[in-house]
Amino acid sequence: MYGYSNVADLLTRKHFQNSEIIAGKGGLNRAVKWVHIVEVTNIRNLLKGEELILSTCVAWAKKEEVFISMIKQLIEANAAGLCIEIGTYTSAIPDEAIRIAEEHQFPIILFLEEVSFVEITQDIHTFLINQQHQMISSLEYYSQTLHKKLIGIEYPDEILAFMHKTIQVQAMLVFRDGDIILEPEQKQSEKELLLKKWQYHKEWASSIVNDDRMSTMPIDLLGETYAELAIIPADRPLNEYDHLIMDRTATALAQFFMREMYVSEKRRSQEAEAITGWLGGYLDKTSIHEYLSYYLSSVIPNGSVVCLLQFPAKIPDLTYFKLYFRSIFEQRGIRFLAMEKKNIMTLLLFDERDKKTWKTRMEEGFKKLFENGWKLKTQDIPQICIGKYFDGVEQIPRSYQTAKETMRVRGHISDNSLVCFYDNLHLYRIIAQLHRQMDLREQAEEYLGKIMAHDRKYNGKLLETLRVYLACNGSKKETANKLYIVRQTLYHRLDKIEAMLGTDFMEQDRRLTIEFYLKVIDFLEMGEKRSTYNNSRLIEK
Hints:
- The protein is of the alpha/beta class.
- The protein has 18 helices and 15 strands.
- It is elongated.
């Protein structure tokens, strides 16, 4: 088995043939990364941990307090053990030092005859370096072999089996939905015991300094933990090699699951034909539920809604986008079917939770999607338009029409929010319908034409003033404050507005009409700006 050698391994070397362990036999499994000669009395800052210390004790052999201090320092520095040449400078080890070493399972080894520290360090260092080289070569072989196997592997069990064969530990894969894979497979009673150990480890892992009985590693996909890999040895502590093999295995599992998800998402592209028929209203109730049962298994939605994502340009492959989307939104109780056409993705969303919270969950999901998950340039974030939410699934065609209406209207309103909902359009929905039937600009000019002409000629602010004055319910003080102008300037502007609109412009019916046509002007002007912007982008491209 690869990994760092321990004290017990080094005791089999030739230079330790005539040696004796006088304390800390329980710590012979301590890893040894290096060998270091120490003859000074202050070594706290000289060690990095897991060094086997060689010493004649020349500086502290006859000073019991210093000797004890050295033992404590070595333990605090996480040294692997202390080897003392007995006889030259010291003939006995203080009882208190032996007691402390025994208490902390810190090995103290005596050389019973004169030895060459130079030869020991050369021998052990050569041994350790060769061992590390072998470990690296073995890891490379493992990684290459596993990479080749990935091409033909159909189940994650095969990856776990390869890891088990390599390091001979119990492997456990725990998925976020609660499913478990064990390699080798175990009886139900043993399976439950391993799961309890894993749960205990997760609960206490942060407080455990060195847990060599179990190690866990998350399998992260698309910014979320998809599963967790655990290794549990039967009759030995875990070593560095085990952890490195585990790391390579976790990476391979992530690649395998990602491939499976990608292939699955690609297959879902076949949904497009059926979705087209559904959106067109050509599927009956029975066909709809059969279709849902086939593609979404056991999902029974409480409600449904259609979402349209319009990208500025055609994106070659949105498979990974849908993977991110699925990962984020399914956690929020929302399943979906998707169809792509040119630069528009149509999403049929099915809500499995409380209708009252669906909007909040949608907003949170899209925020996370574009902030933490799917990395797009700012200009490539799509327009997100969501139609009317309906109970059940039969009203998907109606929701689709409202989603398209939302997209049409959004091009005419000043809306900087990430998601635009049909339910939030209010008056603009009426304006959009009227605009398709008549020339609303002519109607608006009838009421507000004089003010608009004045502003164009004199670069004035009458229309803005009117809008703020109405929003402030005729409060001159509040209007002046919001416009950052003095009262006299406001009075001057209001006199002009009154001369153009009539003294009765604040009466209920007149005011309502004026407010409506102010919305109409906003609607028309924003539409013209968007059209000009889009045309300029086309010219640039």
